[in-house]
Request: fold
Amino acid sequence: MKKFLSVLLAAMIMFTAAGCDMIDRVKEELFSEQENTIELENGEQDTEISNSINVGVLDFDTFNPLTTESETVREAMELVFEPLFELDEQMHIIPVLAESYVLSADGKKVSITLKSGIKWHDGSELDAYDVGYTIKNIRNGMTTYTDLLSGVADHKITGDTSLEITLRNPVPNFVALLTFPIVKYQTKLDKSNTYTPIGTGPFKFDGKLSTDKMQFSAYDEYREGRPAADKVFVVFAPDLNKYHSMFEASEIDVITSDMVDLTQYMPKGGIKINKFVTNKLTFLGYNFHTTSLWGNETRVGLSQLIDKDDIITSVIYSHGFPVDVPINPSSYLYSADKTVFHADEISAVEHLKKDGWELNPAGNYVRNFNNSKQALSLRLLTNGESAEKVGVANKIAEYFGKMGVVVKVEAETYDRYINRINEKDFDMFIGEIELGSNLDLSPLIASSWNYFTYKNTDVDTLIAQLGMTSGEEEQKLLFNQLADILMKDMPFVPLYYREGCVLSGAKIKAGVEPSVSTFYRNCEKWSVK
Reply:
């Protein structure tokens, strides 16, 4: 650079006024490089590149994948950055940047070996220091992924391509949480809108085409070979309505279910819905402080009055999957041999009778409790700002009411709804939780913290055991044992997991295979020819 500036200075002294034009052009080129702006040669227009993908971005803040708060930016950066592991459609752990891992016998240490020869877009080689740097900043709260590593006590580099993570306590299927993007060592972790993304993924950043359009090119040295598409154009949208209309007009080629509500949106012809089952579980929760819900036979009986298939069809228009156990039905851990999704009123009455409930002349359930009559009358709390949750609550009240169980639906504002759950001011409530990629049920059922004041030491033991095994068959056995306990104790009723998808336009012919860990999974294989 110093030599170049010396030549430029000499030229300024020697050249006449007629030569200033050339100097100005040199300055403009320098400025363009600094601003990452692309000058297309010979008047070429980016729209003429047929073998390309257009991706929309809403609420752009930064291309830094660890600090962006924009869901669409996070999705777009899946084209550029990669994780240690990802999950396939059945939630098996698939190594990406990692080659392998080993879990210690006590479940507290995970030793990871990286693949060798993986190159960053600047030509340098990925090593364990890059991964350690990423993990360090996530643990320090510098990113939006901090919760994923909340159970990590320490980590250390053990070699150029190896590292070790130490956990405070065993975490079920911990490696499935290592799906966050890895950034290069000493990457600045601010939220600058001038951040230049340098990853290991299939597409590398070229620069700006305009104020609202960025260009990314196929990375020739990508570990899986050159991507099928030559270019990716990231287009900025000013608002959500424009974002949707751009997809409708084929100005962008993909849009995800995080950005569009399929219960309200009907794709037009030529659009393909590439589905997967999310980890968003909707459930009916019971308050163990409510005396009329004491007795597991009561809770089991009530759960059997619920027609989950009907809820799926009439409330969320088939964009969900009913379950009887809180395990993602697409997961290899899920077993469908115990499922009954339709209401079973005969079985429900038998369970209620076992806890002393009988119909009185008025057609309502009562029982003797502490030397007095107790009525089966319940308050059902729901988020009044969600039409879906109100619809689910009304359906359950309808099912219960037909059988003589009195239910009052209480739809509150979201803030009030949350406060009442925290205060345990409900008998039942409609809840939703997005479980982690490792399907850890601790937030729902661990005795240390849960919504329902439910406690079972056998459950705690099984969760600990799950943290000490990585074998799929053993994991499945433990999850089934856990499911058996939950179906007997019934602290809550799993209702359904929501469906997710990536909607792709007619330009993308094949290869879109989203999962719970990655919307743009295998994007290097997307066929656009």
Notes: The first helix runs from residue 2 to 14. The longest strand covers residues 272-286.
